Amino acid sequence: MKFFCISLLATVFILVSLRSNILPKLKSSPPKHMLTFNNQTFIPISLFSLSVDSYPIVDIYACAKTDRRPFLLIARNEPVDNELLKQFEGEGVYNLLVTTEGYEHFQEQLRSNWDRLLEDSSIPLKTRLANIIEISRDLVAKAFESKHPETLVRVARSVSRVLTSLINRNQPSLRDLLSVLRHDDQLPSHSVNVACFSILLADRLGYPLSDICKLGAGVLLHDVGMMEIDPRIRKNARKVDEFERKEIARHPTLGFRLLCRCADLSRDELMIVYQHHERVDGKGYPVALLESEIHPWARLCSVTDVFEAVISDRPQRKKLSVTSAISILRRESKKSLDSKFVDAWINLLEAEGIE
Amino acid sequence: MTRTLYVELPPSMANYFSEGGFTDTTYFETRRHSRLRCRCEADLCIVESPTMLVRSESEMRVLVKDVSKCGMGLLVHEQLFPEERISVHFMGRRALATVVRCRRLGKRCYECGAKLVSFESDE
After folding, report:
1. pTM listed for this prediction
2. How confident is the model at residue A22 (pLDDT cuts 50, 70, 90)?
3. So where are chain A's domains?
4. Is B10 a domain residue?
5. What's the CATH code of the domain at B54?
6. Mean of the per-residue pLDDT values of chain A
7. Residue B46 counted as domain residue
8. Staple partner for A274: which of A138, A172, A241, A256, CB 3.0–4.6 Å?
9. Using a CB-CB distance cutoff of 8 angstroms, which residues of chain B are in contact with residue A270?
10. Which alpha helices (H) appear in A75-186, and where do they start and end?
11. Which of the four pLDDT bands, split at 50, 70 and 90, describes residue A1?
12. H-run or E-run covering B78
């Protein structure tokens, strides 16, 4: 009898536990990195990229909050439930998952909508931004993998042209932009995010369109030298030692060396790659230049680069809030960053009440 | 024609011309060969630059800092960029080298490291 009671209590306990495990499945958490589960690797995609095509051609997964186990959310060729997407958005879940095998097909489907995304104002701006940023990130990732200078410049130019056109014509809010960008520790995500921020800032500062386009291309390439750094150092989760710090500090020079033979690239674009870690107090690298010796586009890029780095996950630390990023920028504007660009960027954030 | 030397040595290099011998190295340096201090003036000519880097002058008077089996250190009054091909004429020898790094030490003083391509005597 005693044994029966204990068994009954244990069964009830297991059932309650199971239920509590199932229920939070609906409240998915946003996956930030590639995720491997049961020998299957999943890649995050933006929630908003589903809104253009009502019938995704690949299976779409979401990630359970409790054990981060992916579960099938929308089967391929099944209609997308817009109410469900709104529910996810309301809960602050901006990323879903596709398998690595499905990712290429998913990208093809997105690319087929490229022109429509640029022109069709009936599609919500956030959806268009999310789709274009998703495609851009993939194109940039592939170009980075190629390490081929001409390919890198060509892709950076075309992606920058599209991002510039979209931002200039539609004037998205910074809040919209922040909600569709993926803040993980991946190099292509970082490059696209910094490029979007820089294009937006240059646009609000009244730069000519042709300059914004070039600036965007340079910013997309700013960290290309990182591809030459040993991934064990780049993705190191512990505090970097002196040797590793020196290795990482080589990336602007490595990027410069990779791209300087490219006839298509302008001096302005190349200087973003070479000087984005220079600081106005002369404590930057690789040259330790002072204020006006640093190209203005590199000074602008260093502000958005620092901001993006602070609000994104890094192997060594978790991301910080926008409020923390603002206070870091304020502190650095008195020392190492160009105060003109810092003030302009903070004004943009504060005007929209972003914290 | 002897060019004017525009390099301004920072105060930390007050004893620049009196120093000699091999330079110290640190644990984290990855140099393969020891560097010998060689303090003299030299004529530098920029032989080749990436196309987008337009230069106001391609010939200048510089200071040689040190030399090793594979490279040399120079002090130049303006910034040189990686991958620029330079020819340095000093002490009756002509070195052809490629710039690999450049660091600002002070006003009109940039320390450049260059990798030797060839090293020939004038005769």
Report:
1. 0.81
2. very low
3. 25-102, 113-351
4. no
5. 2.40.10.220
6. 85
7. yes
8. A256
9. 50, 52
10. 82-90, 100-111, 114-119, 125-146, 149-170, 174-180
11. low
12. none
